[in-house]
Design goal:
The chain has 540 residues and is mostly helical. It has 25 helices and 7 strands. Strands 4-3-5-7-6 form a 5-stranded mixed β-sheet, with helices on both faces. The chain has a two-stranded antiparallel ribbon with strand order 1-2. The two termini are 42 Å apart. It comes from Geoanaerobacter pelophilus.
Length: 540
């Protein structure tokens, strides 16, 4: 049986993913501090002609490997420096992932209907749609994980070293994308092969070849790592050779979040399919065949490791969503009933969300919705009510038809969410403040930043000079008193008054405001600025 994906059968997840990406590109800003930080690193690599060592605020940036930054610069090489095409970088890899999950499903179960359902589920899961349209590492990392898992399945069937070599290249690509964390998703599948492969087929040679694939991955990384270590300086060399492994693992245990923290996010990460009735009906009929065992190993292994680490972020689980789509598709295939409105729970979900939002807009919310436009929220809520009602009436012929109906509803759902959040998202648009910073730099001002600067203004403003980070009020005061032309960026409370004669620029920003103070404003507001720290956001 051919295992080449038939793209014409994948048009629905392709359409949903592309439509979501287009909406994000046209309507939403790049969100600080993560998206703007990574775009600024790529921008400074271009400005400083430093394509081996990533740069942030004119200094080597050791927190992430360079692959995403290379891809951004490749985009600019092809299309010129722009913002409009950047969100299509994660989209391309997301579409590849849909094809790969289709292929993996065929490798495991040789069932094209099941494979197509897995691809549709993946391409219409809300969390996966979101991360497929933002500038972060997780969808690109998922690509390498899927390549490696597919290669390991081939290795189990063919008994050759070639697939292990491919898995090694994928491990190297994953490390170049986000570091050694890629092994958390891949190694459980390789190490527990004795469970999902037939008894007696996993010999010591399997583990020897797994070790060789790790060496291949390391060799791929060394192609970049050696010149980076030689050219980045001693501090950067220590950071990438030591900080990316031992120190970051130690920090993971230092950032306290409870063991159960990820469980509360599972419904969010798997919506809307967590409400799909055939999934739950089929779970009761699942048998532990080899494919199901592999998928469970993949999911449970990654989930347990990340739960044991104290440093937790929701998006760490994004590369596990493809595995969950396989498990869901397999469960749905065990529930081949007809003539049932299996989409009703999801229709009710849309109705409840719409009704809740509509009700909130007519109640006294205090400051809960002060950053939203109530008219936009009511349009979105009304649309959700209509969407839920429309989804309630059809009577699909079988579970696969119900599945496609639910998937088709996710694109209008995303569009309505974007409509409802349009005004709110404007509080994350930093084009204006970035332009103000650029203007001051061009006029000869030295721009200071109170607290940690995450590089968020460099690409948005096309800055070519660094911002000077200063922490304490005394340090800022001394600098302002000894330099004639200075400006200071702080983030005071939204209700703090900002006299026009004391600031070059101010705008609402997230739950606060961002202010670019002049010399008078710096001295007058320094005590108030003491609590106005930079938006806290660590490396993820």
């Amino acid at each position: 049986m051919s295992q080449t994906p038939k793209v014409e059968g994948l048009w629905l997840p392709f359409l949903i993913l592309a439509g979501t990406c287009l909406l994000f590109s046209l309507v939403l800003p790049f969100f600080p501090v993560d998206e703007t930080r990574y775009l600024s690193v790529a921008w400074e690599m271009k400005v400083h002609d430093s394509f081996i060592v990533p740069i942030q605020n004119a200094l080597p940036y050791s927190h992430k490997p360079p692959l995403l930054f290379w891809l951004i610069n490749l985009d600019w090489l092809l299309f010129g420096v722009n913002e409009g095409t950047l969100r299509f970088i994660p989209l391309i890899f997301s579409l590849f992932n849909v094809c790969l999950i289709y292929r993996i499903a065929l490798q495991l179960w040789e069932d094209r209907k099941l494979a197509l359902n897995a691809a549709v589920i993946l391409g219409s899961t809300f969390a996966y749609l979101l991360w497929s349209s933002i500038i972060m590492f997780d969808v690109l990392l998922s690509f390498w994980v899927l390549i490696a898992v597919s290669a390991l399945i081939r290795a189990g069937k063919e008994g050759r070293f070639g697939p292990f070599a491919l898995a090694g290249v994928a491990i190297g690509g994953g490390i170049l994308t986000k570091g050694p964390v890629v092994l958390v998703y891949i190694l459980p599948v390789a190490l527990f092969a004795f469970w999902w492969r037939p008894r007696g087929e996993v010999t010591p040679r399997w583990y020897a070849w797994t070790f060789l694939s790790l060496l291949i991955g390391i060799a791929v990384v060394l192609v970049w790592l050696i010149p980076a270590a030689l050219t980045g300086g001693e501090v950067y060399r220590k950071a990438i050779l030591w900080g990316q492994t031992v120190n970051r693992m130690a920090n993971s245990f230092a950032h306290k979040r409870p063991l159960w923290w990820y469980f509360q996010w599972v419904p969010v990460l798997l919506a809307p399919w967590i409400f799909f009735a055939p999934f739950w009906r089929g779970c009761r009929r699942l048998t532990l065949d080899a494919g199901t065992k592999l998928v469970l190993t993949w999911i449970v292994g990654g989930f347990v490791v990340f739960s044991l680490l104290s440093g937790k972020q929701v998006h760490y689980l994004i590369p596990l969503i493809p595995a969950c789509s396989l498990l869901m598709a397999k469960a749905v295939s065990c529930c081949e009933e007809s003539g049932r409105r299996f989409q009703l729970p999801i229709a009710v979900f849309y109705l409840l969300v719409g009704a809740a939002i509509m009700t909130l807009t007519f109640l006294k919310q205090g400051r809960a919705l002060h950053s939203f436009d109530l008219g936009e929220l009511r349009i979105a809520a009304g649309g959700l009510l209509l969407l839920g009602a429309a989804l309630s009436f059809p009577k699909p012929r079988d579970t696969s038809a119900a599945l496609k109906l639910v998937a088709a509803s996710t694109l209008p759902f995303v569009a309505l969410v974007v409509v409802g959040c349009h005004t709110f998202s404007g509080r994350y648009d930093i084009h204006a403040v970035s332009a103000a910073v650029l203007k001051k730099q061009q006029e000869g001002y030295q721009v200071l930043h109170q607290g940690k600067y995450h590089g968020q203004y460099h690409f948005m403003g096309r800055l070519q000079q660094p911002l000077l980070e200063l922490e304490g009020s005394d340090e800022i005061r001394r600098h302002a008193q000894t330099h004639e032309k200075v400006a200071l960026v702080t983030y005071p409370r939204e209700d703090q008054a900002v006299p026009p004669e004391e600031a070059f620029f101010r705008q609402p920003f997230r739950s606060k405001q961002v202010v670019l103070w002049n010399s008078r404003g710096i001295l007058q507001n320094l005590e108030g600025a003491k609590a106005a720290a930079s938006p806290a956001q660590g490396e993820q």
